[in-house]
Amino acid sequence: xxxxxxxxxxxxxxxxxEVPAAAWNALLDDAARPFLDHRYLSALEESGTAAHNGWxxxxxxxxxxxxxxAAAPAYLKQPGAGEFVDDSLWDLASRRLGLxxxxxxxxxxPFTPITGRRLLVGAGEDGPALRGGLLQAAEALARExxxxxxxxHFHLEEESAAFEAEGYVPRLGVQYHWLNxxxxxxxxxLARFRSSRRNQLRRERRAVAEAGVELRTLRGPELSATxxxxxxxxxxxxxxxxSVPYLTEGFFARLVRDMPExxxxxxxxxxxxxxAAALNICGPSALYGRYWGCVEDLPFLHFAVCLYxxxxxxxxxxxxxxxxxxxxxxxxxxxxxxxxxxxxxxxLHAPLAAxxxxxxxxxxxxxxSGLPAWRIDSGLKQTS
Length: 384
Prior knowledge:
The chain is of the alpha+beta class. It has 2 domains: 3-174 and 340-375, Gcn5-related N-acetyltransferase (GNAT) (Aminopeptidase, 3-Layer(aba) Sandwich); 181-319, Aminopeptidase (3-Layer(aba) Sandwich). Helices cover 37% and strands 25% of the residues. It contains 12 helices and 15 strands. The strands form 2 sheets. The chain has an 11-stranded mixed β-sheet with strand order 2-5-6-8-15-9-14-13-12-11-10. 39% of the residues are buried.
């Protein structure tokens, strides 16, 4: 029998470790790296970070014999942190109808609001058929478990058609990304601002230096910070802000151990002591800002560590894009561009699904109409 004529079977994985790293990573392209890498998913799951916050792996995988053909990272989601796509009003409406909203199935990643591929298909395989097969298998799982809904978070625009073909309703969001327009030096980027905004940014940068703070980026062997110190910076800042740290020390330990070449640490020192740091993760063509912490909160220190220093470094190294994370309209005034993000939602209760579809249509129209004004507000001189 020809191998391609063998039937395709579905497996639901309760941990990414149920398949070899080489088989999983063979499905990845640059649009899936580094956050769908087996090592990153394993760090979230094996450290307890995911499950302790209500994310329970139910990855949907398609096999031909023992060969992994396609997969979609998926989690059975209980109430808790880490989605970055707010559906609290849908939750309320569902409960008013007497229908529990949780658990639900999320096709995406815990605590990682980064756009990337969500439907992984091996090279040379029938992409459209396997993507449809993944979504049909995910819905069958949701119905078997009596779930309220399925949600794909931060998927690629090119995947939208696959989701819509299976009855998902699209949703738009906005993040602020820095885009490299061929700057040869940081001063060329600053020159793009209107004079009043440019002077403001220079004052903010000077304030940190005048406070005696030195910034540098550590990579590879230079990344001498222990996982424990990274965790303490992160956890201490979360607690001072009145929130509970959801990432575990084990998660940081796994990242430092398993993904050292993808990590960058921007550290701020004063008088030889580290007073702040930001852990960033490198992708094939972009830098991603992830976790920040400080023990001393100086004016503009957060901007310097999390925005200005990484941008300057991207310019010097020719990195094309810097995504500093979700939220934060303050990024707009500092030269970051509003960029659309996408999610897709399949609600299995028809009356609620119809209500949500109407509300999302209005939301999409408002976001699209607002984008031109947001881009003008960036403070950058408009180019023809």
